[in-house]
Amino acid sequence: MRTWFITGTSSGFGRQLTEQLLARGDRVAATARRTETLDDLASHYGEQLWRARLDVTDTTALRDVVNRAFTDLGRIDVVVSNAGYGLFGAPEELTDEQIDRQIATNLTASIQLARAATPHLRNQGGGRYIQIASVGGQIAFPAMSLYHATKWGIEGFWESSARELAPFGIGVTIVEPGMSRTNFGAGSAVLAAALPEYADGPSGQLRRVLSGELPPLPTPGDPAKIAAAVIASADQAEAPLRLTLGSDAYELATTALRDRLEALESGRSLAYSTDADDVVHAPTLTTSR
């Protein structure tokens, strides 16, 4: 039996993870802004489920809840940063408050959760950290600039931190799902107030999709299967740094990375030309047929 700490468990991937883990006999420390959404699980699983009310943007409360969970449960094997949402709109359409809250929820809260949990994981001799991110950390669509900024940011944070944590026996996995059948879109997304200048662009088109005027976006991902894959990754001896889930996520990330590499290779000569004159470059390896 393992013990998990998960943020954002009232719906979506957080809820799926909590249900599946409890069903297989694990303990879950579940946090949510509305803990009453977990009443049904609490009545069924009893002490197997530990609950705490938490807005992850409140850093002081976040640290307190993490400390209480480790104190009450003795050991937590896997910490899952799952809380987040989408903010849609062109940058000019967003308010200062919307920008601040998107960064605070999707990026800063994940960093602060890591800062709060790492001393406990290190002192107990290791553990696992799982970041529910998005394929949106590898690609970018218009009208989602702030959302992508947070997802690209958390990718960089964890790619760096994973190397620092490995000597302590702490593994890191960044989960990159594609479009999934959760309430991410119309259910939990925040849409900026419309400016008429953007009505015919991607921002206006996205509004029409979310309002039902245009057909919905394809959502191939099954949340239950995605949650099961995340749980299975924690059972692996070595934590995979990235877990790309969903056919759309795989195809989109593959195309974006290939295009990026092609563009990088096309600029090789220019990149090398800007080195100082006393830099000696190794010969380029070539193959002959």
From TrEMBL:
GO molecular function: oxidoreductase activity
Alphabetic keyword roster: Oxidoreductase
SUPFAM superfamilies with a match to the protein in the record: NAD(P)-binding Rossmann-fold domains
Pfam families cross-referenced by the UniProt entry: adh_short (PF00106)
TM segment ranges: none
Top-level division of the source organism's lineage: Bacteria
PANTHER family with a match to the protein in the record: SHORT CHAIN DEHYDROGENASE, SHORT-CHAIN DEHYDROGENASE_REDUCTASE FAMILY PROTEIN
Family according to the record: Belongs to the short-chain dehydrogenases/reductases (SDR) family.
Record's protein name: SDR family oxidoreductase
Source species of the chain: Amycolatopsis pithecellobii
Highest classification ranks of the organism: Bacteria, Bacillati, Actinomycetota, Actinomycetes, Pseudonocardiales
